[in-house]
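Continuing the series of single-chain predictions for the mutant panel. This is the parent chain; the variants come on the following pages.
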Amino acid sequence: MTTTPSPPGAAATPASRPRVLVTGGSGFIAGHCILHLLEQGYRVRTTVRGLGREPEVRAQLGDAGMVNGEALSFVAADLTSDAGWADAGVIVNSCGPVERSDQSSRRLARSALRQITAIPSARTLTATT
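Parent structure:
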């Protein structure tokens, strides 16, 4: 992940860093990304299929040593909708479609990539799937 360095002698504060959107927040890779980003002082928003998963994901991250948990927020993601993606400065795409049909999987993957790459504020895209 590339960020703009702070001026010499000035520490980057969470408010001065871009918000990082980590998709697939309940997944293994996303969990590790979230832990590292929070440890580094980033504000993190993660997506889950339903907000009912938030307590479970927070508990898993807490068991793994999460720090700065107040800087973590959740949003329910719908890969068929454009809502909820607009304010991320950095995106870590760690989720993928889980449909059985190859055609459905390809359609959802194209939709997710279109949504993520269309975010005007995003400077970085990291795809892990």
